[in-house]
Amino acid sequence: MAVDTSKSDLEAVGAYDLLAKIAEGGMGTVYKGRHRDSGQIVAIKIVPPNMARNPVFLKRFEQEFQAARMLDHPNIVKGIDYCGTGTTPFLVMEFVDGESLGQKLERERRIPEAESVRIIGQVCQGLHKAHKQGMIHRDVKPDNIMLTADGTAKLTDLGLVKDMDAELNLTRTGRGLGTPHFMAPEQFRNAKSADVRCDIYSLGATLYQMVTGELPFKSCGPLDAWMKKVHNEITPPRQIVPTLSERIDWAIRRSMNANPEERPASCREFVEDLTGHSTRKSTPNQQPADEDLWYLVYKDEDGETHTVKGSTEGIRRSLKEGLLGDGTTVRACRSKAGPFEPVRGFPEFRDLVVLPTPSKAAGTTPPTGVTLPQPTAGRTEPKSPGLVRPRGAAANIEDSGVPHIELVEPGSRQPLEWLMWAAVLAVAVATALVASFLLSR
Questions:
Q1: Domain count, the chain
Q2: Whose CA is closest to 393, among 414, 415, 424?
Q3: Does the active-site annotation cover 72?
Q4: pTM of the predicted protein model
Q5: Catalytic entry in 9, 72, 139, 302
Q6: pLDDT in tens, 411-435
Q7: Residue 397 forms part of a structural domain
């Protein structure tokens, strides 16, 4: 952590000696300090003199300590001590030997995608802990994420944390505490209404800056930024950095959707969106994920139900090409025995059936999970995507116009289908033999 070695007017507070100034701002000055008896190195935030007698500010200051003390997690900066009395109220926190994510971005401008996902994933772990304990951060941004020398991310600055069960009335209606570029649009109107999805939005906005090197809604004042957010007028990350993956672009835009109901419902779901892998534990009757086998149930355009199985890649290709009908009605499970759930519940396929932002066509928002058709140029879709290429057929599956997965029909239908294909093959062979005999004469 960069420190300022210049002398301050203070040399000590409570049982701590002040060693050097770390940072200074409207919310206080942070020093590197040392406990006089134990020798422990800490970070000490001291209330500005002009705010030391403000009861609302002091309450928020104390709340920051209480939240940091309660949230014992390796990805959250720990609270150690607090003194709210006297002329110099102060807060003692864990000292992070490193720098803030904001400082790293100032130096490097942009962070590689894989490293960005790793950092945000760690922040999500700490934030998930806070959410499970009924707390909302409300000010997630690069400057409030510390990075240790070994690359561990730690969420800090919990002064705006909201207790979902016991609002401390530290905000007033119409005041959206937080930072405009990273705040969810609903938080502008009323910080009291902030919930888990507000933090999800801020995570997405933070990741946006990390992978693009640009602030979301840059060059906009607070009001303009709010208007653009409300109308989902965000420049897609891949438009700024074309080398970004489609998944990261989709995950960021979904997390920054103006409609809270269309964002991931939890930090865990956001991580799943970023990685494409489930964080859920497999149940005993499910196929192990490492065997990469799925069972799907879908209806073709004639309303006939089919059960199919295939790999993640094969199913994704079929969904992407619209070969399974309306993707939002498709259900999946690792086990043939079920239970089958909508594919939007599985991160392996969610990005293909959930739109990242509402459609601007006609100014309307399509129902959640409805995807627009994605026909392939030069292709004629078959009447029923339930028909699959027979084993051993010479047709290229890339051009077959059928699902890239295997049919697993129940009952006696499969043997009948094999008999049908055997009969077709027999007729073809017989025809060829007759033709050969007649030509030879």
A1: 3
A2: 424
A3: no
A4: 0.76
A5: 139
A6: 434 444 445 556 666 766 666 665 6
A7: yes
